[in-house]
Design a protein that fits this description.
single chain, mainly beta, Neuraminidase, 4-stranded antiparallel sheet, 2 helices, globular
């Protein structure tokens, strides 16, 4: 009788162990699969086509939206272990570049840049790199890609989690298939890479830590917009208002180069939850104008090729849980704002 009880106990423990392992695999898998809905990764072509990324049970899907059509076209889809980042149109709209990278960066760092031929409806793998590539931009003449890449994944400080570090700007010559490092910043974070119409300089956001000499100084660092001549990166300079006391986050520059459209906090001096809105700064007049007044999280501005329309993302669930992104557009002066309904 005791042997029977012992055998029953062993079998029960084995069954329980197997069940826990299966459940562990299941729940580990569903962490990625919980990602659903529209992301903030999108771009607008010179023909006003919109490429955007959604997630369905953790799987990224790249869609193409044309105004007036009842259904959007799915261009590509990847598995739930993959992130799809920064769809970017070439200037003529013939090519759509995008990045895929692995979600679990504890195992390895790897990113692949792809081209989607808009006419042939074909995908080409351009290159793969052992790094985290976060953003892409075509040079205006289409000969090269400029991209942001981070080569390490670690704790920046004892109180923060692991994340990509050592960001710099790189250039990939498409025809010659050659990579060239254009900066030696090794920044904790770089964001919103923009290329000048001349193609000889880039604009990006990063910490303005030029005056940091002590640990206390680091707490006063603001995020500003920098201009970097590609052939002389040592001549880097701040182009946003150097006296602005509130940091600037995602941004873009209008096609004429006269205005900066950017995200910042509108209520920095108030208690409670910060409100992230969009602003416009004119380089000549040095005047600033608040464009949105949603009281939530407006971000990721993109300006149309004709300079008349600003597209942006609005997180309606900001500070309450998982993001609930919706795509909007408005005039360059912040008027006539309306949501763009994306069927998918």
């Amino acid at each position: 009788m005791k042997k029977k009880n012992l055998m029953f106990l062993i079998v029960s423990l084995c069954s329980l162990t197997v069940a826990l392992v299966v459940l562990g695999i299941f729940f580990n898998k569903t962490e990625n699969e919980k990602q659903n809905g529209l992301s903030n990764q999108y771009d607008v072509s010179s023909q006003n086509e919109i490429a955007y990324v959604t997630y369905k049970q953790g799987k990224p899907q790249l869609f193409l939206h044309n105004e007036g059509e009842s259904m959007d076209t799915v261009l590509v889809e990847y598995d739930e272990e993959t992130m799809l980042l920064d769809p970017t149109f070439s200037n003529d709209g013939s090519t759509l570049a995008y990045i895929t990278t692995n979600k679990n960066k504890e195992t390895e760092l790897t990113s692949t840049v792809h081209f989607y031929d808009m006419e042939k409806r074909e995908v080409t793998d351009v290159f793969t790199d052992s790094s985290t590539i976060t953003e892409l931009e075509f040079k205006p003449d289409g000969t090269s890609l400029l991209y942001l890449s981070a080569g390490t994944y670690k704790n920046y400080s004892p109180i923060t989690g692991k994340r990509p570090h050592d960001f710099d700007v790189y250039e990939f010559n498409i025809k010659e298939e050659l990579h060239e490092r254009k900066t030696n910043l090794q920044q904790y974070s770089i964001y919103s890479l923009n290329v000048a119409p001349s193609g000889d300089r880039v604009y990006l956001g990063r910490d303005d830590d030029s005056d940091v000499t002590t640990a206390e100084d680091s707490f006063q660092v603001k995020q500003r917009i920098f201009e970097i001549p590609l052939d002389h990166p040592e001549e880097m300079s701040v182009i946003s208002d150097p006296d602005r006391e509130v940091s600037i986050y995602s941004f873009t520059i209008t096609p004429t180069g006269n205005d900066l459209i950017f995200q910042s906090i509108s209520n920095a001096d108030e208690a409670g939850t910060y409100k992230y809105e969009l602003f416009k700064y004119n380089f000549e007049s040095k005047e600033e104008q608040q464009l949105t007044h949603y009281g939530k999280h407006a971000s990721d501005p993109v300006v149309s090729a004709d300079g008349k329309t600003i597209y942006f993302m609005l997180d309606r669930n900001f500070a309450k849980g998982s993001p609930d992104y919706h795509l909007y557009k408005m005039s360059i002066d912040g008027e006539q704002a309306e949501e763009i309904v994306l069927p998918n």
